[in-house]
Amino acid sequence: MTLIQNILFGIHRRCFSIALLVVCFFLLTGCGSPKNPRAKDLVPGTGNITVNGEPLIGAMISFIPAEDNQFATQSVAMSDVKGYFEATTFTSSDGIHPGNYIVTVICDEDTGPRPSAEAIAEMEAQGKPISSGDTTRSQIPVRYNSPQTSGLTLEIPPKGHRRLSIALESK
């Protein structure tokens, strides 16, 4: 190698080493975005959801800020096998903003396998109506799915609430 090639090779090698150190630094220290500044205003929002007095398993609960709660952010929760839930706004189980909310609940159960591609092709060939393949049904009345019809409201006090109760009726 010539003197110039040795100098250039050394520069590339140093640049590579520096780049590698920078990458390692970010990997070790984390390079995620800073926490949402509104997360500091969150309070606990945990509780249980039931239908006809029994725990509702696998319910997706949405907390939609009411009109008078314009600075809050929508939160969600998922109920476990005991109907227990923890509100999530920015990160898992981080809480909910205080204020008034409209609550919606969706809880579907799987009712069977979807038709295969072969079954759909056979239905087409026979001129039969093709099934939509919908294999779920709601475990609760569909009125609870919409903020306009759920009729569910909740107030989260300034210090939060650890014993929220959402009681649904199947009638």
Descriptive notes:
It contains two helices and ten strands. The longest helix is centred in the first third of the chain and has 27 residues, at 3-29. The strands form three sheets. Strands 1, 2, 5 and 10 form a four-stranded mixed beta sheet that branches. A four-stranded antiparallel beta sheet has the order 4-3-6-9, with no helix packed on it. Strands 7-8 form a two-stranded antiparallel ribbon. 21% of the residues lie in helices and 29% in strands. The chain has helices at residues 3-29, 117-125; strands at 45-51, 54-55, 60-65, 75-78, 84-86, 99-106, 108-110, 136-138, 152-156, 161-168. Residues 5-17 and 19-33 have low confidence and may be disordered. Strand 1 and strand 2 form a beta hairpin. With 171 residues, the protein is of the alpha+beta class. The protein has two domains: 1-30; 38-122 and 133-168, Immunoglobulin-like (Sandwich).
